[in-house]
Amino acid sequence: MGVAVTAHVVVVEGVEVDTRHWIGGARVASERTFADLSPIDGAELAQVHAGTAAEVDAAVRAARAAFPAWAALGPAGRGAILRRVAEGIEARLEDLSRVETRDNGSLIRSHRRGVMPRVAMNFRAFADFAEQELGHPDLEVPGRGHRERITYDPAGVVAVITPWNAPLMLATWRIGPALAAGNTVVVKPPEWAPLTASLLADIMQEAGIPAGVFNVVQGTGIEAGAPLTAHPGIDRLAFTGSVPTAGVVAAAAAPNIVPLSFELGGKSPLVVFDDADLDLAVEIAVEQFDNAGQVCLKAARMLVQEGVAEEFTRRVVAGAAALRQGDPREEDTDVSALIAPRHFEQISGFVARALDAGARALVGGGPNDDLGGLFFRPTVLVDCPPGAEILTEEVFGPVVTIETFATEDEAVQRANDTRFGLAATLVTGDRERAERVSAALNAGTVWVNCFFVRDLRAPFGGNGRSGIGREGGIWSFDFYTDIKNSVFSPSGWEE
Ligand code: NAD
Fold it and tell me: DSSP for 373-439?
């Protein structure tokens, strides 16, 4: 439970969390609050301050005021401070892990081993890249005698809106490059998991981030998110979330001609060929239940070649059945609860309609009655009718489908038969097939005989309904900067 230690600070898992906004280097209260509940047991963790257009406006103004000095520091000056932010995250890795786990129900072991170290990397790596990449050698233009200088000027104020499934990871993946490139930031965290953003504000302050460079406005999508997306003072909008919300956000930002970076949902395939290392294929398949399947990159649609379909399916079902479901604060828990009652109803509805339409659940298929609450059993569905909703819509929960295919061409055609295009995974022992199929798949990221690995220098993003734009390495700086070409003719002076 969250215990109030002062009017605005609660203790969650032994960690003090301020429930107010962070605007212009100070804690700011709102008149109203909203309840933040834990998915693990429904406990109220905090009453978090509910921002509105007024707090958003104050934050954008603070960010605007702080921008010139932050931009003027240059990549090295900013990098020194951002590396201290990374160190601050590493020093508080356990606090961040505990609070995130309590707040959104994700596994503590994932946070300790992978997620929170990556959060720190989002600052350190982009501080490094900015120093390496934000200079470009002049283009010498033969014959005309002039030089063209390409510079990456920070864009200004970046608005960041993030979802609840990996709140701190997804926020810092935008905040790190935005700050490294010289922008200032206003972030609107998800109302279902708002707490780690507040801890990040503490870490930023301790690291010496100047007042106004980083701002947090808590609140709901409608009350705080919408005014941020429509604010004329923002210069970039980085949104991670669902397709329907993205449409509303794009419309709100359109009158101000604000460039968008959208990372949205998916319906990604896992294609398993009959020449695959089946141990590996099964391992990747069972990994899809991580974070109770609430992962944008999840390979929810499994397509298996006929010759190995029976064995693959049997082993995936056994693997799913063996997963330990329970409290994510325990190191040996594999699958936790869904984020909120409304989401639980959505997942239950998807599965019930699939079963009604003729699908069969080989394991799972409904709530975990032993645990109650928001725990939904890892579910493997087969015999889903072609075109069924369960095969086409994003189901953001512990549910996968298995279908079979005969030929490589059929596998590619069916893998690509989706409006999304976030990721695709294939498992094969044939190198030439790997090259052919990876080239033919329509996705921002293709994994061959691996899953969920990516260097921060590489581009990330989605095709089709899965997003707009690419981030990572230099692609992040393409988005967070105004790229300028200055053409110098030597005719005014002696070279
Ligand atoms: P969501 O779209 O409901 O909410 C995302 C954020 O938008 C939240 O902070 C919310 O408060 C805010 N919001 C809601 N309405 C708004 C409005 N009118 N104006 C401005 N902001 C508004 O998404 P969610 O349920 O929080 O997250 C799940 C979705 O996110 C899934 O579709 C998932 O695939 C996607 N996702 C994508 C990636 C990626 O990298 N591609 C990563 C994680 C999650």
Answer: TT-B--EEEE-PPTT-HHHHS---SSEEEEEEESSHHHHHHHHT-SSEESEEEEE-S-HHHHHHHHH
Active-site option among 100, 191, 263, 471: 263
259/313 same-domain check: no
CATH number of the domain to which 314 belongs: 3.40.309.10
Give the pLDDT confidence of 225-234 residue by residue, as tens digits. 999 999 999 9
Percent of the chain with pLDDT over 90: 94
Residues 247 and 365 grouped into a single domain? no
Write the pLDDT tens digit of every residue in 11-41.
Answer: 999 999 999 999 999 999 999 999 999 999 9
Examine the residue annotation and report whether 263 is marked as an active-site residue of this protein.
yes
Tokens of 36: 């933040």
Number of domains in the chain: 2
In angstroms, what is the span from residue 245 Cα to ligand 1's centroid?
A: 7
Residue 146 predicted with pLDDT over 90:
no
Dihedral, CA of residue 266, residue 272, residue 273 and residue 276, to nearest 10: 130
The ligand 1 site (C-beta within 6 Å) comprises 161-165, 170, 188, 190-191, 220-222, 225-226, 229, 240-242, 245, 248-249, 263-266, 296, 394, 396, 422, 462, 467
Distance CA 294, CA 337 (A): 10
Give the pTM. Answer: 0.97
CA atoms within 13 A on the CB side of 198: 28
Point out which residues pair with 335 in neighbouring strands. Answer: 325
Atom 13 of ligand 1 has which residue's CA nearest to it?
221
Q: Please tell me the distance from the alpha carbon of residue 184 to that of residue 156, in angstroms, as a whole number.
A: 6
Q: Is the pLDDT of residue 91 over 70?
A: yes
Q: What is the CB neighbour count within 10 angstroms for residue 72?
A: 11
Cβ partners under 8 Å of residue 164, min gap 6: 104, 190, 191, 192, 193, 339
The structure tokens listed for 49 are 């301050």
Separation of CA 240 and ligand 1 centre (Å): 5
pLDDT grade, residue 82 (50/70/90)?
A: very high
Please, which pLDDT band fits residue 7 given cuts at 50, 70 and 90? confident
274 and 260 in a common domain: no
d(C-alpha 302, C-alpha 43), whole Å: 36
